[in-house]
From TrEMBL:
Name of this chain's protein: TIR domain-containing protein
Stored SUPFAM superfamilies: L domain-like, Toll/Interleukin receptor TIR domain
Organism this protein belongs to: Apteryx owenii (Little spotted kiwi)
Disulfide bond annotation, renumbered to this chain: C330-C359, C411-C434
Cell inner membrane as UniProt keyword: no
Pfam (any one): TIR
Region (Disordered): 773-805
Amino acid sequence: AWPGTRVLAGAAALLPALFLLRCWGLARAAAADTPHARRALGRLRRVPRALPGDLRALDLSYNKLQEIAAGDLAGLPLLRRLDLAFNNISRLAPDAFAANRLLEQLRLFNNSLAHIPAPALRPLANLRCLDMSNNLYGRAALDGVFGTLRHLRELWLGGPLLREIGRDDLAALKDTALQKFALKTAAGPLRYRAGAFSWLNVTELWCDMALDGSAAALPALLRDLRGKPLETLRFRNLFEFAYYAGSADLFAGLAELRATKLVFYRGKFDERLLRSALLNVAGISGLRLDRLLLQDISNPDVLRFDWTFTWLSGVAALSIVNVNFNFVPCDAWGEMRNVRVLNVTGNRLEDAYLYSQRCHYGAVMPKLETFVLANNQLSSLAVLAALTLTWPRLSSLDASRNGLGARRETCRWNGNLRWLALSHNQVTAAAFACLPTGLEYLDLSHSQLDRLDASFFSRSRRLRELRLSGNKLKFIPSGWTCPSLEVLAIDGNSFGVLARGSFGNMPRLASLAAGDNPYHCTCELYLFLQETRRRRRPSLRDWPGNWTCYHPEELLDTAVAAYTPWPLECDVPALVAVAVSGTAAAAAVAAALCWKFDVPWYVRATWRLVRSRYRGRRGGGGVARRCAYHAFVSYSRADAGWVRRELLRRLESATPPYRLCIHERDFTPGRWIIDNIIESIEASAKVIFVLSRSFVDSEWCNYELYFAHQRAVGLGSEDVILVVKEPIDARGLPRKFSRLQKMLGSKTYLEWPPEPSRQPFFWMQLRNLLGSPRDGEDMASAGNSETPNQPPPPGSASLINRLIN
């Protein structure tokens, strides 16, 4: 508070729990690192035995203790805090605390003590905080023992049977400088003896007393407090059952008090009683009110503003909370010219009764900085913007718990507004067009919002904190941009996907709350979390407690923190590396297998066959297949002498002669070798293979074998004649001669006998396999007409041999 100012409140400035437990809460917080014992609720009927002797704090509240006997606490010499509240204790032995001389806080609240236990308190010279309120004694007379408690700072007395406060009941406290004194009396008439409070030397006085039927006690009480160092005076239920109907000015003594804070909590106040209190406070020359709080008052008529509050011009903080008023006249705004904080939470204000076209708002509220309109019945953001537009210093506006945001409106806002709370409203995506873009703080949590307007956030370049918790957002906008955002809360929505780029356009984002969403536990989410942990920003405020998997089904209700995919599943670089390595390994294995099984040779051969046939079709030869030769002879260069000397001489000199095709003589010069091989084999009735070790080493012989085998598939395998010139081991042949291996294993072949005596039989067998030359006379004539048997041009044989071998 400013020097020389006061606070007047007609409400709960402090909670009742604080009234009873303030000392104990502070004591427990301070003792967090000291030995402390807490016993099970409702089970103990006596103080437990064998407690640790080094205990400094013991909580036995909410049990069924009826007595603290001598020796119950004798084993706790270091005890400093003891809570015995909410039991049924009716007796404290005189030496109950004899061994606890270090005790500083003692709580006996809500027990059954019929007398103030002064003898039991005598050893407690270090006692600082004592609560004996809400017991069953009928007088508050304090024994001289209280005068010896020089360290006592907080004292609670009274209960539901205390109906009289004698003049000397509190005399023992005259030399004790109390920070707080609280007194509770019975609900009926109270007999207050003048001078009873004159003994007090206290800075904060709480009076829980109902003066129904004994209103005259209030002026006497206030007179007794004159000249005291009182800073706070709080009354609870001053008039509990009926409004004050007397004519006396009950608060006349307020003007003579030094209190800077006056609280009226609950009770029945009408306009006349409240006015009496306010005018007595305002009647002092030069006095200003720091804060005026009107809350939970039973009669809302006191806030109809039917009479002029001239003293409002000195109020700096005005709170009118939970009194159900619904109308503010125009002249009331003009009286609040010095108000900096205005709080009208929990009333029934509607748009038309808060803002009226007949009122002039331009010169009012020139100092207002904070306006709280929470929990009313407002529905138009445009009305709210118009009301606050001309208030030059307004920077904070709280309109939570209304019905705002459902309309599509155009709004013009105060340019100084930086803090806006619209939680628990009915905001739609259309409402973003009506929101100010100069905000630094925006709260739209719990407002049924189902999607965002990303353009609003890109324009809100000052926005630093955004709260969207508890809405129905189904997705995070792609490329969501908000350059200055530092704090974001999107927990409790309906989206399930977060990716590494979700917040990439928020470079200053440092804090994120995103739990309680139905997450799809996939690599996208996993990589987002990995990236967040690696960069250490943004920090996840609600991690890991509220992060749960919703999809896939096998991970339903699994904690996201427990989702650990297979290492390579989400590591794209590693996955690519493994894939490339695997592919390379597979290619290497395939290459090795191809080399081992001569696959390249077969591929080349097939390609040459296809290419040759394709060229043949393109060449337009179109000649039908004719058997111009009885046989095509395939042999290696090393066996050429045997072929010319033996094979050709024997067969071509026969009567009638056989017509044979050999490459040295019969291939057409200038044509592709493969074309010559294919056409010669197709133009021959039979194919003779002269097998030897040189044959196996010749690639072109293998081609001829391959093409002959291809022809045999279509025309029959009896067209192939195998002549083994030299013994060869079929099992030792290379893989590319697998067809030859099969032929040697499945066909009858001829072996060339080196003995001259056996050679005639060899030629007879070969002629039988070739058939009679007469069967091919027409073939020969066709061959003579189409492919004359001319000797090759000079040098052609050597050229062909070089190409083949």
